[in-house]
């Protein structure tokens, strides 16, 4: 749990910086870094941290659900394996998201003189470049499949945690005082619900912008605000 908490805090602190889009310009001006490199860094960091956010948040919900679950042979065995291979799970999550998001290094950069049909202007100086239809469909399919699976898993584990908590404490007067287990479960439930709501609002905005190949400044500001709120309260 400490490793997950540390990673979630780190991810969302990093996510806040490129979300403001200010510190990168300061670094660029100080080090004389070209716009293209700055834009690639901005898009890559932002998308990697968002992907890690959903993966680690889902993992947090799964571990808490297993922790408070009724002890059975299967769950006891699963708890042991989860603890034993936790480092491997983290390495897989980070490796997958870093490699999968690497396409942004190729298809993002500084705003150029190309026609608007070949680039999607996201910020004042940065844009996404048009990509092959098959590549875009593949990326969208993998992203949606991953997100639907993880959000679905979050909802299932949240429902299970709530059921377990009610089963254990609802009719037990001796446990009316909030126990550490109860407080942890309530906090994670709140975190997961908050994440699911904000993530899907962000996903709808991103999906609509990609489909219509248009990013309105107001919509972009709204999207950044939503993600920044979650990144602020999560740690």
Automatic annotation (TrEMBL):
This is Vomeronasal type-1 receptor. The keyword Hydrolase does not apply. It is a multi-pass membrane protein. Pfam families: V1R (PF03402). It is found in: Cell membrane. GO terms for molecular function: pheromone receptor activity. It comes from the Eukaryota. Keywords: Cell membrane, Disulfide bond, G-protein coupled receptor, Membrane, Pheromone response, Receptor, Transducer, Transmembrane, Transmembrane helix. Belongs to the G-protein coupled receptor 1 family. Residues 1-235 form the G-protein coupled receptors family 1 profile domain. GO terms for biological process: response to pheromone; sensory perception of chemical stimulus. One of its GO terms (cellular component) is plasma membrane. The chain crosses the membrane at residues 7-25, 51-75, 87-106, 133-156, 187-214.
